Automatic annotation (TrEMBL):
Molecular-function GO term, any one: nitronate monooxygenase activity
Annotated organism of origin: Candidatus Anaerobutyricum stercoripullorum
Protein name per UniProt: Probable nitronate monooxygenase
CDD domains in the cross-refs: NPD_like
Record's function text: Nitronate monooxygenase that uses molecular oxygen to catalyze the oxidative denitrification of alkyl nitronates. Acts on propionate 3-nitronate (P3N), the presumed physiological substrate. Probably functions in the detoxification of P3N, a metabolic poison produced by plants and fungi as a defense mechanism.
Origin organism lineage: Bacteria, Bacillati, Bacillota, Clostridia, Lachnospirales
Residues annotated as signal peptide: none
Length: 312
């Protein structure tokens, strides 16, 4: 499936891996890119030196295009932005802020800039500042989320901007990809399904939590603080929601989740850790290789879009 995004990024399939902190390491990013999608290193709150090491490791593993996600609230965002230029990273995606201050530097270096947006207003602003495309991410996503659903957000963003739109949130199979294309998207970004891939370095306990999840197993915490986060329910989410309902302070809530993602990803503590995952966790039934995921989903979507296969 050739689209404006596959042409822009030089990738085979219109499938982009979400830039997930602690999860989007060089192992996963290289595997997704090698499979024909676009792998993304998730910088999260990591130091610039770590990001440089990850970029170099991806380059050693594949000659395919890849990207880096910059979490703009990272204290070392300025240094990471420069590392992206120094290392000649092909693509950068951004979240948790406005990347405007880095746009000129990245553009002059030939870096394709694709911000994640959760509203039409931010999408339009990103287009004005020179973004090459935007990722419209719906509330179905795992981790930090907005409020509008993918089904409602994507077509409104598509209508509001002239640059290509990538749909994210609630997509886990060829049906979701085909639906996103019908809404006007030119590619999709997926996270949860790649967390449960063979190449993902997350703990087996985390992967098993996703594979065993049901449709109602994700919960959103942090709505009262203005920083909602979607995770698979466990002891931590239960306690957080209890404290939140009792009017706990931001400091108390932050103390509960401090280091929570690392606990789940690295230590395998899926009881007290933050098991970030999207609402489609209930659709992920097995751990597969990135190659199987990317090629299988693309083939399924192609069949649906060509009308050669219908789901009943």
């Amino acid at each position: 499936m050739k689209t404006a995004i596959t042409e822009l990024l030089g990738i085979e399939y219109p499938i982009i891996q979400g830039g997930m902190a602690w999860v989007g390491t060089h192992e996963l990013a290289a595997a997704v890119s090698e499979a024909g999608g676009l792998g993304i290193i998730g910088s999260g709150g990591a130091p610039a030196s770590w990001v440089r090491e990850q970029i170099q490791a991806v380059k050693e593993a594949t000659d395919k295009p890849f990207g880096v996600n910059v979490m703009l609230m990272n204290p070392e965002a300025d240094q990471i932005a420069q590392v992206i230029v120094d290392e000649k990273v092909p693509v950068v995606t951004t979240g948790a802020g406005n990347p405007e201050k880095y746009m000129k530097m990245w553009q002059e270096a030939g870096v394709k800039v694709i911000p994640v947006v959760a509203s039409v207003a931010l999408a339009k602003r990103m287009e004005r500042t020179g973004a090459d495309a935007v990722i419209a991410e719906g509330t179905e996503s795992g981790g930090h989320i907005g409020e509008t659903t993918t089904m409602a957000l994507v077509p409104q963003v598509v209508d509001a901007v002239s640059i290509p739109v990538i749909a994210a949130g609630g997509i886990a199979d060829g049906r979701g990809i085909a639906a996103a294309f019908m809404l006007g998207a030119k590619a999709v970004q997926m996270g949860t399904i790649f967390v449960a891939s063979e190449e993902s370095i997350v703990s087996d306990a985390y992967k098993n939590k996703i594979v065993k999840a049901k449709d109602i197993d994700t919960k959103v915490t942090g709505r009262s603080t203005g920083h909602p986060v979607r995770c698979i329910r466990n002891k931590q989410t239960q306690e957080y929601l209890r404290l939140e309902s009792e009017g706990a302070t931001l400091e108390e809530l932050e103390h509960l989740t401090l280091g929570g993602l690392r606990k789940a990803v690295v230590e395998g503590d899926v009881i007290n850790g933050s098991v970030m995952a999207g609402q489609i966790a209930g659709m992920v039934k097995e751990v597969r290789s990135c190659k199987e995921i990317v090629e299988g989903l693309n083939a399924q979507a192609e069949d649906l879009l060509k009308g050669t296969k219908v789901y009943e």
